[in-house]
Amino acid sequence: MPDPSENLPPKAARILAAAGELLLARGSKGVTIADVARKGHIGKGTVYLYWKTKEDLLLDLLCRDFLALADEVISAVAANHELIRPSRLCPNLLHVAAAHPYVLAVRSNDAELLGVLTDDARSATLLDALGPDAMVRRILPIWRTYDLARTDWSVADQALAVDSLFSGFMMVTGGCCARQVEDPDRVFAAAFTALLGPERAAPAQVKAAAAEAVRALGEQSAVVRGLLSQPAANTA
């Protein structure tokens, strides 16, 4: 997983990294600002220069993990347009999401890890903007437009089916059933092709679909960046 404290002033980065280690080890209820300060080897007051509350600090961790997930997907699709195909993007996204613990925690409503953030409206915004399921739902109309998905279903019906299939695979990825299959990705790809139909797009359509998906996910990333606290560089 990319470092969630990247591109921050040094002290803010240390605070965020320390908070991340404590959150994964103890859960939200076991983390205090004093704990974070001690682990980051800074004064407690310094933490409050960057984040007003513990919840704001932990929310930044969540936001940055969602942004890191989106950045990985955007970079991969921009570098290889063929990855936008449902049979390739969906299995890839399953694997990428598995490496983002805060994304998975928000998605599963993990109250032990997240504490009061499970009921925070900002967590719901994260899921709706850049949750792995939300990414697939947002890209579905693009697939339909560029002959990468069948269009004989209504968008709403198709979105429900795709969401159910993707969510189911997220539950079994790495589980015993997946381990019994030599190539789970082949099964994942075949299942999405069976649901969405053959990918008839010409190369130019694939390229256009990839570009549109990159733009769409970039717009959703901007929504999540709007939730971040903005540490003042001159306090570093």
UniProtKB/TrEMBL annotation:
Instruction: Print the keywords alphabetically.
Output: DNA-binding
Q: Where are the transmembrane segments?
A: none
Recorded hits in Pfam families, A to Z, give: TetR_N
Which SUPFAM superfamilies does the UniProt record give? Answer: Homeodomain-like (SSF46689)
Q: Which domain of life is it from?
A: Bacteria
Q: What InterPro entries does the record tag this protein with? A: DNA-bd_HTH_TetR-type_CS (IPR023772), Homeodomain-like_sf (IPR009057), HTH_TetR (IPR001647)
- PROSITE patterns found in the cross-reference section: HTH_TETR_1, HTH_TETR_2
Q: Which residues bind DNA?
A: 32-51
Boundaries of every HTH tetR-type domain copy: 9-69
This one is known as TetR family transcriptional regulator
